[in-house]
Amino acid sequence: MYHLSEAYLMATFICLLCGYLGAVILAVTSLPRMAGRYSDDKAYVGLIDLYWRSVHRFAVIGGLIFTTTGALASGKTALPSAYALMLVSLAGLMSVAFFVSMQTLPNVARPLESRRQDTLSLSNWILITSAILTGLVLIAALVYVLPGQFTFWPTAQ
């Protein structure tokens, strides 16, 4: 008999991670543009500063939750320890990239003209993009192991 509960837990983890990354991608790509269309410059800058800080905070906290969950579950799973370490490392790398991006957010005290042009610097975009791509690699690694994970488990005697 195979341990289907572990497969269901891994599938749940994958679904939650996909929802989390989808929310981060939506928050990074489309919502700032919509806010810029319907507000004046002064309101937009104040709103977008708050918005980027909350998006980064959400990304960091979510990444830490996934990293912690993966680290705690790695000792209980039947996956090989090297593969579990790779999964935890990917989740940790995603969290670190979001955290470093949060630390390099533009200063709120800059003049309005310079902040309107570049709400996020190139380094922030590179870090956010690399964190999202790392999360997608993590999803691919989890999906890769899900169908074949029964080969890791011994059958019941």
Overall shape: elongated
Mean residue pLDDT: 78
Strand portion: under 5%
Number of helices: 6
The total beta strand count reads: 0
Q: What about the largest sheet?
A: none
Pattern of helices and strands: HHHHHH
Give the low-confidence spans: none
> What is the number of independent domains?
1
Radius of gyration: 19 Å
The separation of the N and C termini measures 8 Å
**Considering DSSP H and I runs of 4 or more, what fraction of the residues is helical?**
over 70%
SSE-based structural type: mainly alpha
What does this structure look like?
With 157 residues, the protein is mainly α. It has six helices and no strands. The protein has helices at residues 4-29, 31-37, 41-74, 81-103, 112-117, 122-148. The longest helix has 34 residues, at 41-74.
List the keywords.
157 residues, 0% strand, elongated
Give a quick precis of the structure.
This protein is mostly helical. 78% of the residues lie in helices and 0% in strands.
Q: Which secondary structure elements does this structure contain, and how are they paired or packed?
A:
Blueprint lengths: L3 H26 L1 H7 L3 H34 L6 H23 L8 H6 L4 H27 L9
